[in-house]
């Protein structure tokens, strides 16, 4: 009886997004060096909402931009370490990674529909998506963010929350594998912020991807995050990294639960012990 052929060992799937031993330093005016990030390693294997939490100025936004390949002019980033998307080095803007900022950057001369359609005017996306499919995507996305009736209006005619919906629609219409969000709801009033948090969870369920969401709001991190990653003060290191098994949407009642209170105290305690300075927010 012939022997069975050997079974090939399983090959581990590449993470959707990974950062390994990231160090970021900048030259100071006095000739010294400022270290902002200190050997930060993160890996995101599956679609999820991941909150990057820390005090203002700790280096969250620097890390977030690096994950999407956004590099400042004439500065080597990272100083050392590497970022990979699907196992491929990410050394510049990457078509599978899209960013949403606190200042939504909608073009004032374009209507809501034209703003969401705008990415498809670039050659990379003209090559990837037909004009017909692009228009269908835009129409669908405006329905999903609740702006179908505002399609012909301009950003100046919209509220702050509506403008942020436009920015979110413009990002998700590309169906990114990685969505990077830099305090996108920080400038909104409390009720609009709550509505946008709910909308994000709904959109993520419909369009799964890796979301990395920067915040300095402990409550927001616990409310939205499948995973919460806490950074120390500069130079930023990971001081806490945990998963929350309860699925979204999470209610205000859960935020008052013993589990949520324990997590809150744990996070704040780690931040204080690490010497993190700057503004930390608790919105409930």
Report the major sheet. Answer: 6 strands, mixed
Beta-strand fraction estimate = 15-25%
With strands numbered from the N-terminus, the spatial order across the biggest sheet is 6-7-8-3-9-10
Give the domain tally: 2
Would you give the CATH topology of the largest domain? Rossmann fold
Distance between the termini: 70 Å
Principal-axis shape: globular
Regions with little confidence, pLDDT below 50 for 5+ residues: none
pLDDT averaged over residues: 90
Helix share of residues? Answer: 25-40%
Count of individual helical segments: 9
Sheet/helix structural class: alpha/beta
CATH architecture tag of the largest domain: 3-Layer(aba) Sandwich
For the record, the CATH class of the largest domain is Alpha Beta
SSE arrangement, N to C: EEEHEEEHHHHEHEHEEHH
Radius of gyration: 20 Å
CATH superfamily of the largest domain: P-loop containing nucleotide triphosphate hydrolases
Number of DSSP strand runs: 10
């Amino acid at each position: 009886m012939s022997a069975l052929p050997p079974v090939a060992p399983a090959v581990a799937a590449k993470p959707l997004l990974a950062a390994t031993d990231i160090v970021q330093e900048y030259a100071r005016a006095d000739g010294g060096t400022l270290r902002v990030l200190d050997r930060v390693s993160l890996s995101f294997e599956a679609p999820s909402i991941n909150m990057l939490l820390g005090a203002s100025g700790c280096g969250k936004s620097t890390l977030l931009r690096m994950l999407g390949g956004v590099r400042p002019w004439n500065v080597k980033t990272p100083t050392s370490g590497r970022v990979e998307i699907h196992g491929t080095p990410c050394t510049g803007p990457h078509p599978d990674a899209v960013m949403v900022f606190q200042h939504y950057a909608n073009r004032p001369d374009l209507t809501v529909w034209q703003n969401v359609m705008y990415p498809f005017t670039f050659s990379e996306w003209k090559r990837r998506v037909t004009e017909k499919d692009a228009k269908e995507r835009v129409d669908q996305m405006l329905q999903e963010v609740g702006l179908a009736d505002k399609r012909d209006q301009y950003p100046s005619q919209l509220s702050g929350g509506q403008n942020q919906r436009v920015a979110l629609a413009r990002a998700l219409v590309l169906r990114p594998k990685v969505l990077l969000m830099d305090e996108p709801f920080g400038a909104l009033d409390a009720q609009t912020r709550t509505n946008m948090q709910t909308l994000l969870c709904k959109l993520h369920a419909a369009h799964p991807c890796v979301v990395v969401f920067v915040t300095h709001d402990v409550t927001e991190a616990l409310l939205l995050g499948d995973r919460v990653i806490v950074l120390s003060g500069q130079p930023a290191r990971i001081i806490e990294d945990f998963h929350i098994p309860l699925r979204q949407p999470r209610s205000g009642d859960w935020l008052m639960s013993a589990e949520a209170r324990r997590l809150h105290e744990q996070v704040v305690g780690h931040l204080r012990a690490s010497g993190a300075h700057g503004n930390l927010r608790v919105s409930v």
